[in-house]
Amino acid sequence: MSQQNHSENCSFNDVKQLMETVQLAVHIPTFILGLLLNVLAIRGFSSFLKKRWPCYTATSIYMINLAVFDLLLVLSLPFKMFLSRRQGSFLPFCTLVECLYFISMYGSIFTICFISLDRFLAIRYPILVSHIRSPRKIFGICCIIWVLVWVGSTPVYSFHGKVQNYTCFNNMTDGTWSAKVFFPFEVFGFLLPMSIIGFCSSRSIHILVARRDHTRDWVQQKACIWTIAVSLAVFVVSFLPVHLSFFLQFLVRNGFIVECRAKQNIILFLQLSMCFSNFNCCLDVFCYYFVIKEFRMDIMAHRPSRSQLVHQDTLTTMAKGKKSCLEEGNLNLNSIVNIPSQGPDVVG
């Protein structure tokens, strides 16, 4: 069944009018904040890369990659708002915007997944991971993520098929909602990454809490726990509702749900969840904040304090003073030893 057949006896005009208002209220601040915050995030983590600190290079590369995906989503929002209000838009341009939108969404999901896995391995197997967290390998992983999401976006090109009166991000063909297209997207694009993120995050927090009584850097590890917890919360809030709505719409489009009121509620839930999932590009700033805070705490923990610097300077001064005294004493001793004897002159 096509979307047109679905709406013959069940009107979605009220949902459409409501969503036009909601999108304006959500997408405009999302665009402004997302553009500003992600540019600042890229600049901030780039500064850590420029300083060539090995401890922070891997995480910085991942975070820059995540910010680039978020920035890509932000830049697609104005076109999404414009095209979703125009029927029969230029199909190649509509397909390009849809492609960029879903690439940014699933690129963010895969990047967060690899960040969680990398952090868990660094906490659980620090010696082993130190040999495989080189900047070149992390950059290679990010390139693989880009290839995967670009290849995975190929079904987007057939979203509208030969539908004449289509609207961008709407009126998708029955083939789009077929099981062979939907389940790979749902399983490999969300369920599998969410399982990995949930496992790695819970295990990482468990390990860090278990070390509480056996570490001197509890403040730093507490910041790490907050980073992991916030990242998990942002992921669940951003992507769980939208993929749940995808599943419900799959049931509608395949005839499992036929009641008009239920279909209206599901399409409203789908539009709202997609709308608010875009705000993920702003919510990720909390992850950036805690990661940068963790970096700075680690730097301060390994940087000598003011009292330590004064004490070190005092010890250095004392050492130099002792050395100069010893050199002066040796000089006087040498001068005494090297005084020539007066005996021969007396005898002469």
Automatic annotation (TrEMBL):
Gene Ontology CC annotation, any one: plasma membrane
Main location: membrane
Topology in the lipid bilayer: Multi-pass membrane protein
Secretion signal, residue range per the UniProt entry: none
Subcellular location: Cell membrane
GO terms classed as biological process: bone resorption; negative regulation of osteoclast differentiation; phospholipase C-activating G protein-coupled receptor signaling pathway; positive regulation of ERK1 and ERK2 cascade; positive regulation of Rho protein signal transduction
Transmembrane segments: 22-41, 53-78, 90-117, 138-161, 181-202, 223-246, 266-291
InterPro entries the record matches: GPCR_Rhodpsn (IPR000276), GPCR_Rhodpsn_7TM (IPR017452)
GO MF, one example: cannabinoid receptor activity
Keywords: Cell membrane, G-protein coupled receptor, Glycoprotein, Membrane, Receptor, Transducer, Transmembrane, Transmembrane helix
Residue ranges of domain G-protein coupled receptors family 1 profile in the record: 37-288
PANTHER family membership: G-PROTEIN COUPLED RECEPTOR (PTHR24232), G-PROTEIN COUPLED RECEPTOR 55 (PTHR24232:SF56)
Sequence similarity: Belongs to the G-protein coupled receptor 1 family.
Protein name (Swiss-Prot/TrEMBL): G protein-coupled receptor 55
Organism annotation: Bos taurus (Bovine)
Originating gene: GPR55
